[in-house]
Specification:
Elements: H1 12-22, H2 32-39, H3 45-92, H4 95-104, H5 137-147, E1 156-164, E2 168-175, E3 178-185, H6 187-192, H7 196-207, E4 218-224, E5 228-234, E6 238-239, H8 240-245, H9 261-279, E7 284-286, E8 295-297, E9 303-305, E10 312-314, H10 333-336, H11 344-359, H12 371-380, H13 395-404, H14 415-429
Antiparallel strand pairs: 1-2, 2-3, 3-5, 4-5, 6-8, 7-10, 8-9
């Protein structure tokens, strides 16, 4: 973290004190102008100061409103572009013909479709890979029973609450004598979100497929939402965020000593290996919310990539996903703009994390920007976190970071390349 130091010994207080001593007459006694100045006290100073503070606060609010309006305007433009893109895709794939035929072949009295709704020249070309339908929880329950990870609620012994998020409480507990973490989805999450069961099932479907030492292991699940929607995983005592920065919110000052460089690069390599594994799956698993608070550490300080609530599968036949998801600070510009994206959005997030591990600083902490302002500047001004000072030792790492967070997703390396580069660097540095 770079702090700017004041040069010299000048301060507003020392300057004014000196002026009061010498005055405009350089210390000559009996100066009438000096006496006049000293006799007349400042008036309404307190009220003026309060007014200035109020004006400053209002100016901040106005500036924030302007920034938000600019963001919303951009989002509106991007949404319009995205809708035009969807319309073009629908037209190219025959969906508009399908809708047209649907309207023309609807029986106005019965509300039923004519059997001739799908003429040969109007049939749409559907995706070759069927979309996963997580709302059909029965399939997932059968899979859980078959593979031995279906858990009855009474099998879990709760010990203490260790965290909470926007959708769930997290508890430490035991299951068959093992220490576990239990993520209990809020019942009202399913009541207020029509896709709640889909998100729940998607996370489980992603987790149950993974077998890698650096990916959080699923122990089992209670599959009876809304009251018993529990994800049971191996228990991890800390996160990468806490290990690097200590507890609490973002701040400029370090709360704990910075871990050794070798240890930080070890964590980076393990994250890269986990992501290389996920992207190597068929279909590929795109995390979409990779950040230090979603990366856990075990007692030996080895990583576990976790929290697959935003994860999605991407088959080889599919080119990209669309839709904004994840956390702005670590989010790739194409995701912010709701443009089509692929697994390289995770590489961008990793680039931000790698720089954070190298510098020991929170991303963008050198600015006073909030998440929305950061997102706007990332897209409009190519804003990135401050890089470490280049003394020659970090040159290759800095190059790797810059490639990973490049605005052009096609420039970003794969995690296979990143893993190779980090291993090679470690062998030469340590």
């Amino acid at each position: 973290m770079n702090h700017q130091k004041k040069k010299g010994g000048w301060s507003p207080q020392s300057s004014s004190a000196k002026q009061a001593t010498t005055g405009c007459c350089r210390g000559i006694h009996g100066c009438s102008s000096l006496e006049a100045i000293n006799v007349v006290p400042p008036t309404n100073q307190n009220s003026t100061s309060k007014l200035e503070l109020q004006v400053a606060e209002l100016e901040k609010k106005v500036l924030k409103e302007k920034e938000l309006r600019a963001v919303y305007k951009k989002r509106m433009e991007r949404t319009q572009d995205y809708l035009r893109y969807c319309l073009q895709v629908a037209q190219d794939n025959g969906f508009l013909d399908l809708i047209h035929n649907y309207n023309n072949n609807m029986d106005p009295q019965s509300g039923l479709l004519s059997p001739n709704i799908l003429p040969p020249n109007a049939s749409p070309r559907l995706p070759t890979t069927p979309l996963y339908q997580p709302s059909d929880l029965a399939v997932l329950i059968d899979q859980a029973h078959l593979n031995g990870w279906y858990i009855q609620p009474e099998e879990i012994e709760f010990e203490e609450k260790i965290g909470q998020g926007s959708t769930a409480h997290i508890y430490k507990g035991t299951w068959h004598g093992l220490d576990v973490a239990i993520k209990c989805i809020y019942p009202d999450f399913f009541e207020s979100n029509e896709n709640g069961i889909s998100f729940f099932a998607q996370e489980l479907d992603t987790l149950c497929r993974q077998r890698h030492r650096y990916v959080l292991q699923l122990m089992g699940a209670c599959l009876d939402p809304p009251n018993y929607a529990w994800v049971v995983t191996e228990f991890m005592s800390t996160t990468l965020k806490e290990w690097l920065h200590g507890p609490g919110n973002r701040q400029r000052e370090r709360m704990i000593p910075l871990p050794l460089l070798k240890e930080r690069l070890d964590r980076a390599l393990e994250i890269s290996q986990a992501m290389q594994y996920l992207h190597g799956q068929k279909p590929k698993v795109i995390h979409r919310d990779l950040k230090p608070s979603n990366i856990f550490l075990d007692d030996a300080m080895h990583v576990r990539v976790a929290d697959f609530g935003h994860a999605r599968f991407l088959s080889d036949e599919e080119k990209a996903l669309t839709g904004e998801t994840g956390t702005y600070v670590y989010m790739a510009p194409e995701v912010i703009q709701c443009e089509p994206y692929n697994e390289k959005c995770d590489v961008y997030s990793f680039g931000i994390i790698l720089n954070e591990l190298l510098t020991g600083n929170y991303p963008y902490i050198e600015t006073d920007y909030g998440p929305t302002k950061i997102a706007m500047e990332v897209v409009e001004a190519n804003l990135r976190p401050r890089l470490p000072d280049d003394d020659g030792q970090f040159r290759e790492l800095i190059d790797l970071i810059c490639l990973s967070w490049d605005g052009d997703a096609s420039v970003r390396p794969s995690f296979a390349t990143i893993t190779f580069s980090l291993k090679d660097l470690q062998n030469r540095i340590f």
